[in-house]
Design brief:
This protein is of the alpha/beta class. It contains twelve helices and eight strands. Strands 1, 2, 3, 4, 5, 6, 7 and 8 form an eight-stranded mixed sheet that branches. The longest helix is centred in the last third of the chain and has 20 residues.
């Protein structure tokens, strides 16, 4: 079921929203952001509550993890993974980084969760009519790739793991024989890709408040980092500049009425590697509330 049209009341609830028809030409774009992705979990749970679906989704990093549970129609699964299971298993730690090469425990997240502790509905995921793409960074080319999987559970998990593998604190993940890392390195908000696929109108779920920009300066990555991947180093050397340009582009599209953005209303207290369950729960609830109001405002 597609949400047909945003009503005028949407403008009163979200001052920057404009009328937009959601149909077979409307895409959904999901930003990453590590544990800030619990905001996206809330938004998508609200979408599922209202039966809102999109024909196309492109997602990166934490957005890809959340997007998988959305496409598999499993409300609450991403919240449990990001909040309840984090409290129980403490899967973000320096110990993981030292012992396993990943600050997030990959065995827990990509083996025990989907097959044992939080069973993932691969059948529903693969049968979904939604075209779902996840963004990864190709370490050899330093460019983004947009991958999907409709049949193989292990390849789907490899893609989402690669998309979520933060540089410096995660191992490189091999997908189709190619070394991959977090898609946010090269395309944190893949709205331009959605447009290139023919989706001129998009709903964009962001994990930063309006007007946010990264501060500081990019720096050239020393050669002893990723020494076999000079193009990846080059991409990492321009992350801040690229991300801020993408934010400006999204805000321009928003003003033109070509996208609507659902984003936190205030600067976040949640960090990328946040472990405080109360902070995470508050951000999830904000996302759910805004997603709920978003859907209720449409006929």
């Amino acid at each position: 079921m597609f949400c047909a049209r945003f009503s005028l009341s949407l403008q009163r609830i979200f001052p920057f929203y404009r009328m937009m028809k959601i149909d077979e030409k409307t895409g959904l774009v999901l930003e990453g952001g590590g544990m800030r992705g619990v905001f996206t979990s809330g938004v998508l749970d609200a979408f599922m509550k209202h039966g809102v679906e999109f024909p196309y989704i492109v997602a990166v990093s934490a957005g890809a993890c959340n997007g998988m549970s959305y496409v598999s129609r499993q409300p609450g699964r991403a919240r449990r993974s990001n909040i309840e299971m984090l409290e129980k298993y403490d899967y973000i730690s320096i110990r993981n980084l030292l012992l396993k090469g990943n600050i997030f425990d990959p065995q827990l997240l990509y083996e025990r969760f989907p097959f044992e502790l939080l069973p993932f509905d691969f059948d529903t995921f693969f049968q979904s009519p939604t075209d779902f793409e996840m963004v990864v960074a190709n370490c050899l080319t330093g460019e983004a790739e947009y991958l999907s999987e409709r049949h193989d559970p292990q390849r789907a998990l490899d893609i989402v793991q690669a998309s979520s593998s933060l540089p410096y604190v995660s191992k490189i993940v091999m997908v189709d024989g190619k070394p991959m890392l977090d898609g946010g390195i090269v395309d944190s908000i893949p709205v331009q890709h959605a447009i290139s696929k023919g989706y001129e109108r998009n709903v964009v779920v962001l994990t930063r408040n309006r007007g946010y920009r990264k501060t500081g300066h990019d720096w050239k990555i020393p050669h002893f980092f990723y020494r076999k991947y000079p193009r990846l180093r080059e991409a990492l050397s321009h992350r801040l500049e690229i991300y801020n340009r993408q934010l400006e582009y999204v805000e321009q599209l928003e003003q033109e009425g070509r996208v609507v953005c659902i984003r936190p209303e205030r600067p976040l207290e949640v960090e990328r590697l946040e472990k405080d369950a109360q902070k995470l729960e508050r951000l999830y609830e904000e996302g759910f509330s805004l997603g709920d109001r978003f859907c209720e405002a449409s006929p």
